[in-house]
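<instruction>
Derive structure tokens from the sequence
<data>
Labelled lines for chain and fold:
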Amino acid sequence: MFSHLILLLAAVTIYGCAQQPYSATNKVYRKQAKQYAKILKQQPSPFPVNEAPAVSGWIGTTNFNMRKPNYVIIHHTAQGSCDTTFRTFTLTRTQVSAHYVVCRDGSVHHMLNDYLRAWHAGLSKWGNVTDMNSGSIGIELDNDGLSPFQPQQINSLLILLDTLRHRYNIPTANFIGHGDIAPSRKVDPSAYFPWQELAGKGFGLWYDTTGVIVPEGFNALQALRIVGYDTRDSTATIKAFKRHFIPADSTTGTNLDEEEKKILFSIMQKSE
């Protein structure tokens, strides 16, 4: 019995001393976080106003808090595995990151404090917001973009989304995809993503065309702008809309038929 205890203690010691695969980058993360904390503690330097002498004296207000995210942007990694994504997000030269990565087995990896600005949205636009990185949380799902998402992965995502919604009071309409905010560049999280299932849980909008009558002269591009889409590339925008709401028709055609216009009209009404 004693010998077994010795072996167990030895194994625990060896495991505890073993180099973890991301210990080095975790150390860099802590160092960078401390540097930002140091900057926040500093009192800004005085500055001249209209060439007048600089205002003297810093008076710190007591009424402030951290900026909070107002959007959740969902991606697929388009990489072969979570390990590949972890390496991508921990290499400085890639200049890309996300707050969370959800693997195919359902495991969730938190990679950046929610209040910090990840580099996941890139050049993008939603409504009048042109800097999506500054007000959003980025979630990457381990998926190649050509395959259905795993049930356990979607289940973990739903739990994560529910946590974020309650923590930051994120509106239902503000759970969107990378392809929605960057239609001319991105297609993630692909037509396989179960947006309708998410919307049923309160994460994103969905349509109900029961009794919907599209008004005469309905302007589809204007409706897409009201929803939030950037319509400068109208073809890409219509494809993005179909990929999200009409995935069965997302690879064919760049126009909306009458039934699809009803879907868009319904979504537009829910967006207003």
